[in-house]
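Inputs:
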Amino acid sequence: MAEPGAGEPWEPGEALRDIAELDHDRFARRGYPEAVYCEGKTAEQAGVIAAAVGERGARTLFTRADAGHVEAILAALPDAAHDATARLVAWPPDPPEPTGGTVLVVAAGTSDLPVAREALLVARHLGRTADLVVDVGIAGLHRILSRLDQLRAARAIVVVAGMDGALPGVVAGLVAAPVIAVPTSVGYGAAFEGLAPLLTMLNSCAPGVAVVNIDNGYGAGHMAAQIAAPVPG
Amino acid sequence: MAEPGAGEPWEPGEALRDIAELDHDRFARRGYPEAVYCEGKTAEQAGVIAAAVGERGARTLFTRADAGHVEAILAALPDAAHDATARLVAWPPDPPEPTGGTVLVVAAGTSDLPVAREALLVARHLGRTADLVVDVGIAGLHRILSRLDQLRAARAIVVVAGMDGALPGVVAGLVAAPVIAVPTSVGYGAAFEGLAPLLTMLNSCAPGVAVVNIDNGYGAGHMAAQIAAPVPG
Amino acid sequence: MAEPGAGEPWEPGEALRDIAELDHDRFARRGYPEAVYCEGKTAEQAGVIAAAVGERGARTLFTRADAGHVEAILAALPDAAHDATARLVAWPPDPPEPTGGTVLVVAAGTSDLPVAREALLVARHLGRTADLVVDVGIAGLHRILSRLDQLRAARAIVVVAGMDGALPGVVAGLVAAPVIAVPTSVGYGAAFEGLAPLLTMLNSCAPGVAVVNIDNGYGAGHMAAQIAAPVPG
Amino acid sequence: MAEPGAGEPWEPGEALRDIAELDHDRFARRGYPEAVYCEGKTAEQAGVIAAAVGERGARTLFTRADAGHVEAILAALPDAAHDATARLVAWPPDPPEPTGGTVLVVAAGTSDLPVAREALLVARHLGRTADLVVDVGIAGLHRILSRLDQLRAARAIVVVAGMDGALPGVVAGLVAAPVIAVPTSVGYGAAFEGLAPLLTMLNSCAPGVAVVNIDNGYGAGHMAAQIAAPVPG
Amino acid sequence: MAEPGAGEPWEPGEALRDIAELDHDRFARRGYPEAVYCEGKTAEQAGVIAAAVGERGARTLFTRADAGHVEAILAALPDAAHDATARLVAWPPDPPEPTGGTVLVVAAGTSDLPVAREALLVARHLGRTADLVVDVGIAGLHRILSRLDQLRAARAIVVVAGMDGALPGVVAGLVAAPVIAVPTSVGYGAAFEGLAPLLTMLNSCAPGVAVVNIDNGYGAGHMAAQIAAPVPG
Amino acid sequence: MAEPGAGEPWEPGEALRDIAELDHDRFARRGYPEAVYCEGKTAEQAGVIAAAVGERGARTLFTRADAGHVEAILAALPDAAHDATARLVAWPPDPPEPTGGTVLVVAAGTSDLPVAREALLVARHLGRTADLVVDVGIAGLHRILSRLDQLRAARAIVVVAGMDGALPGVVAGLVAAPVIAVPTSVGYGAAFEGLAPLLTMLNSCAPGVAVVNIDNGYGAGHMAAQIAAPVPG
Amino acid sequence: MAEPGAGEPWEPGEALRDIAELDHDRFARRGYPEAVYCEGKTAEQAGVIAAAVGERGARTLFTRADAGHVEAILAALPDAAHDATARLVAWPPDPPEPTGGTVLVVAAGTSDLPVAREALLVARHLGRTADLVVDVGIAGLHRILSRLDQLRAARAIVVVAGMDGALPGVVAGLVAAPVIAVPTSVGYGAAFEGLAPLLTMLNSCAPGVAVVNIDNGYGAGHMAAQIAAPVPG
Amino acid sequence: MAEPGAGEPWEPGEALRDIAELDHDRFARRGYPEAVYCEGKTAEQAGVIAAAVGERGARTLFTRADAGHVEAILAALPDAAHDATARLVAWPPDPPEPTGGTVLVVAAGTSDLPVAREALLVARHLGRTADLVVDVGIAGLHRILSRLDQLRAARAIVVVAGMDGALPGVVAGLVAAPVIAVPTSVGYGAAFEGLAPLLTMLNSCAPGVAVVNIDNGYGAGHMAAQIAAPVPG
């Protein structure tokens, strides 16, 4: 609970008030830092928010940040950490000391890497130990079957897959831990920008799968971090 | 080519002419008997067609036959074979002597049985040896993995699955034979009456899967029989 | 691990083998009992499976059971527990002694009760303490806000809602525990049989929400039980 | 009714007649000025229409104007007012003196600002007092709850939201005034370019919500201005 | 504010507490009585709620009530008013004395009558003067054009239409009052149970149209009553 | 213009005025009689309208009439003609003397017969010579190719097809006359109640195809009658 | 039949044979010249086809031609006529002498002009007299009502509309001639690239409307030319 | 089985391990070489994989390769064969000696050429004789009918079509061989990026059609190669 700046009184400046109202109560209320979704915001708005974050001093993630957003954020928070694949900026740059159980992020294919990496980094910045396994889709089952020990050691598993989206159901059938499934917008036309794997995952015939939005690595990493949180008491 | 009545000259009666035009050229042109899709036809119409089939004497399948259709067809063709699960009536009742390779029909769950059984019987009535394996969905992978020998012995494999529709892709990743995937309308709400497994199958990340219509066991059995047909020469 | 009959060697009879292949390895592999999805199965099939369950002696849930299914199951397992609202049959009738954290099931409206109750009972039969709160939808926010203590005491929260499906996002914004959201097929035409709340939940602007299939109380209860499982070591 | 140029006789030139037929009767018939939807029109067409507007002398709004449209319109109407965020050009530049009740425009997130601002300006140019509140989405309920007085003082409320689109229903549950909901195309993949919040809003379990098209700030501002119009008599 | 029983202290009995939590604060908070959506509730649940309504003594509407619901409600509230076409039960049976402006409900076709009548009665029970015009669809424009005076005298207009859903846009183009559009599930196959008129209405090229859910006469009547409410002095 | 009762002054009774407003101007304005769409109307309403039709004495068609509608209509118009397959009631029972060109109605399969027959009878009752050809789908191309003379003799062709909906495009590629395509709701699951053939027809790669609603034989027959109308000399 | 080059023997060169097979039989078979759909073809392919067209000497239209296509076509056919708004190239440049009835093309808004103009020019190049009316959408009904004479003089009417797509139904209710409706991809988000007006038009409650593909001015102009063709004999 | 490098022991370097896990067991398990789907991968990733392919020495296809991918792959595998139309890179550049039956690839239009060519080349690189026929869509039936001999000589037929997607059903009705149908994203708006031909093909009224994903020439060529494989024994 020594999280920097969380819940402390702080008054936003005018530039911020016109465009955003930071949820400065969030860490106190939920125990997790705030995230700023950059898509749809101008670079200038991202910069104003980043400046306020620096002023207030509370841990914050900036997700879906394009080059313009990143430049504006780093101008305000020069020591922030930026991961280009995951399109994520984190401030402060280092994750907190990990507690709770392990989060394992599994990507079905190489093309799912950006989303998987976003989940991985979010889980770490929210305080968990997190690992990544890539390109173990069901077209060659031996690849996932050879990872059984690693799968069974995790307290929460994020499975990222496009196309047929079949991997989360296969994984869920093999383990006791809950599986958070993330559909990606990777695939031929009838994947319909992620609709196909989304439906597959919602219809998983193995129980123990719950689904987040298409390409939403942030949401999956956040949910996994909550599931693997240290149990009070 | 000793198929009964195929291609022989025959003149339809008036009752038939008002409602249907049998494709009496089909066996000669394609080598497979005609099928009559009963859904949307009245029982009376099915009966008139069955009577014409009996007159003409050519092998015919009646698919998607409900109780009314069956009664009318059996009145005209008393020795026809009826399978209630598959909703299929076949005349003559016995399949021809099998030729070509083996067709294997695999059903992911018990609820997929009606469609799987339709595929099985159609493949047999079109002249193939055909077997059925039931309830080997991916929630318990060991079930399908224990069938590898049977899967690899088939020349064409039909895989029937509802819900996540993931089984065909898993099977295709294990064998050299082509897989015909049949989505079924089995599942919770977001299966959208078979749309979910249909999309999964179309997006299979393992190549070697092609898809037929939702619940279309007839089409799958027909396609598999064509694939496993004896190679000329 | 004293779960009755789990993983013990057992050989299915022929009647069963033709229609289903019980996943007798599941408890050993995953730690949770098997469930039989009755929809799409005949009453007779449900009865055959129930008889096998009784023979084998392992804990089993029968979900989506209609009157015909229930009659056939109870004929084979006379002491099984049946909940008509949840359409659930459980055998043995009593849940195991609860371990792990508490599961809280929240239903937005009275019409969501069948799904909510299915989640509740599944969580209990999978070994958790579970409670139910009904009719606290967002049209009158004070209803959910007055339950903050109860919400914050749970280790996993299931939120069941039809129509606008907005409740899970509101709940997730108030607590640290993960929220499993279940859309229901309740609502006017543009709810499209549950599609509207499904999309709402997938798009929750509060992180910490993951979604299961429409009306899938079983999947939600199972996932919540996994999340709230006792942490090993 | 001293609105400039409304309903006065006027004859369009040929350049205009080939591409558009201004609804010069609209103010007389409906009491609100005409608007020109620029998307899909060439810059040249926008310029021809702007020139005719200047000739005729009646108040007009140009919506969805990109840089090319704006340049052409300002060439014809140099004193027109242009708001880049809202993509709106208004002529004459100043709104009329406000009458009737107050319109309050509420944006769930910063990314909804362009649409919210369009609604705000349209309401003002149609003769209402209008205010704007930004970034009060349901992930942090305290933000909207702290605005209850402002919400209850408005005669019509426009609520703009993307993603889960849950804010209009929450607002409607708190006030007596009607809520016009505007879905935006902001969000992850399963928002489907605004379909998700559109459905959420149509399914609001709180009555008192009616919905306009995705990103249609113009329509919302117009509707709110009509609702908050001075009551005759 | 002399509305019966509104906001007075009242404690629900146990039978009610298990299934519903009446929003007894609603009239105080919003100024409009509560409504109970019967679809998806059992007749028994409707009866328990009706009994509580009678005890508490506050004005309540029961919408989408089928024969079973009606019987149970009337058993608890024998003097309630039931309109079979609108599937509405109102208690107390008489609407309050009307205040504010007039609501006009317009139905495009005879088949839209149940929804239109629901809107009409709801507007009356919420305290407005309300009239109904039927079968004035755009296939014969003279029918709606002959009603101009009646249309222009209303302060809020509800337009109910299935099929092409074009009538609301035509009406909005003729009047200054806001139009609440209600799509109905009436029409040939490509109306997709109301989706077609829903989209038409959302895309109305005449401003001044906002849309409620398919077949949602209740929501439209409620919204219209709010719009036409007396303006606080 | 000797059409019975068309355009003559006539005053509706009160029973009618509450539910419908007959378009008594239609024949004068458009030259074609009115049709009453029965679906969604009660039998009683159909009877009231039929009585008014009898009083007024103008030619009228009743479409989509179920058994209850038919009984009520025939009670009011005992000499009306009823075709059960087409679900059509016509009054007066005999079509007018045919003028103009020939309409040819082509049905791809037997299951399309109800819709095809509705188109056929409507074309006749609107004053055209009309013929019907059944079961000439593209699975056996020789069936349609053998009808080339009949196809080329028609001035308008209606093609009715479910499933793949491919027949209209094939026909259009063979003739100079315009083709009106009618998708039907016949087919396996992925026909989605007629959506599949609807899209096929809209995407016909042969020009000369325009499409009406799913199962809308009435609309197709009407359109074909207009196309084949006698050309004013 | 004096159409240049139609049906004359001609042998394609190799460059053409690899990419296209011109339907040189089309004019003889259908009476209308061929059209080449350029979208999806490379500029080079368009050039090769244009060269073959020039060699063969038969009238041809090139539709959906972008700048690259146009350059390549004009290189091969320097005297071809190009209309940039309609994206159409016609060769020979002049339409044939008009015969048959008049085609009237009506565009609801200025943004529908490209599609409307394509329909207009196609009708002319297929041998009809054709006129154009622009910006007469239903938001100001007086605009279309003032054109009644022009509408009633046409033998076929093409109505082009985006957004709500309501204009074709309004026009059809006013005239005896058949209406070909063309939805356009113009509008706010819930127009879904033309889906909304497409559905509106398919559901027109006025009979006498048939629909072609979204933005398909070519198909509409072709169909209208067929309808308005001179009647043989 | 003399396929280069297949199944031989090989250890991936670290650069590869971070992004992909080649399925080096695939040829042994399935008899067909691996393919690398480039879309969604960076050029750098494609280069790393190509380098590993070269090291390992096993036949590999790179599909959906854009200019960046191609450059990176050719840098690592300078003798690989690149086909720009098909967006395919193959290594080693020459296909193996053909065995089994012939694959015929049929493209409905010139715009379908890229997908058809991908299918053609894949079938060849997987060891089959394969031929291509272009622009024989159903708008001019004589084009496909003149190819009957070629169609009937093939052991597997791939039919590629956009727009109405009707060609596969027509072909299937003419031959005994199975037809693999590939919808393409070619067409006007209501083709919905390939959805229309996809549905057409799934609903083919001629049996003997199975469908792969939109624009998935690779999948079709692979499936056809499997169907036409030499029969063991």
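The two ends of chain E are 15 Å apart (CA to CA). Flag for discussion at group meeting.
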